[in-house]
Amino acid sequence: MREFLNIISVLLIGFGALSLIGCGGSEIKTSNPAIQPDQKFNEPPATESRQIEPAKKSTYVLDSGVARKAKPLFEAVVQDDEKKAKLAYGRAVRVLPEIVQLAVDLRLKNYDHASMVLPKTPLTEDQKTFWSEIILKKPKKLERAVCEALVKNQDFPAPGEKSSEEEGECIKYFEDVAKEVVNHSDAPRERSELTMSIDRVICTDRECGPILENLRDEILNDKFFDKLHNMRRRDTRFYKGNFMSPQKLWEYRPYVSDIALFKFYKALKNTPYEKQNHFIRRFKGIARDMRSETILSRSIAGIILGDEKDLALAKRLGNFLNLNPLISAVTRIEGVLATCQVPSGESR
What we know:
Strand content: under 5%
Helix content: 40-55%
Distance between the termini: 33 Å
Structural class: mainly alpha
Number of helices: 17
Shape: globular
Order of helices and strands: HHHHHHHHHHHHHHHHH
C-alpha cells in the first residue's frame, strides 16, 4: 500500500507527518488534510504537494561551495544546537542564498536582518507581504504570529501556489544533511508490538478491512484499546516535549504510528461487529488527544471526529507549510502551529 505522505522535512522521520505529521512509526510527519476525489480510501487526506512537477528538472543548482558552508549550519539546526547554529550562520551568511538566510533569521529572531533579506528571496509577492507583516511585529513566538495571520487572512495561501525551484533545491539539501545526522547508517525503523498487531489488518489499494475474525479477539477488546490509548498518550507527551529535536525524535520508537492508527480505524468502520460503535467512540477519545501534535495527526483526528471545519483549517495549515518548506523545516514551526485554533482543551 502506498504511504501517502508528502515530505516537508526529513526531521520528522519516524513520527509519521505531514509533515506531516504526532508520533508515527516509520512515516515522515507532514502536513496533509482534505480528502481528494481520487484519493484512496485507506489513506489520510493530502495537501497540495510542495514539490516541483516531476517531469521538469530544476534549473537551479546549489553551488558546491555554498553547500559546504551551509552544511555545519544545517547540522546545528537538526541537532537543535542554537549556539553552534549562530556561530555557523555568522561564518556562512555572506554566501548563503537569501531564502536560507530568511529561514535562519526567523529561527534566531534576527528580524532586522530578515526584513532586509526578504525582498531578495524567490518568494511570491503574496508570501513576501505575509512574512513582512510577521517580521514587522518581531514576535517572541513565531508560530503564534503565523497562526493569527493565517486566521486573519483566509485567502492565503492561494490554491495551487508552489515553492520556487531555488527553495526546492535548498530544502532537498537540508533534508540530505538531516538524514545524515539523524540516521547516518540508513537503518530501518523498528516497529512496536502495537503497530505490528495493527498492521495485521488487511488493506488493499482502495480500502481497509473488514478485520478478520481470528484477529478480532486480539484487537477488538477494551483491554487492547486501553493499552492503545495509554501508549498513544506517551507518544504524544514525548513528541510535545521534544519536537524541536529531530535527533531525539528519530531515536525514539513510538508505540503506535499515525498511519497504523488510521488503517485500524478505517478497517473497524468496515467491520460488521456488534460492538463497532463502542470502539469507534474509543477511537474518538484517542483522536481528541492526538489532534494537537502535528498537521497529519490533526487531519486524521478530524476525520475520526467528523470535524469538517477543523479539517479545512488543517488543510490550510498544511498547504502553508508545504509552500514554505525550508522555513518550516528550519524553524520547526509545525510543532506548535498544529495547535492553531485547536478546539478548547486540546492545545499545547
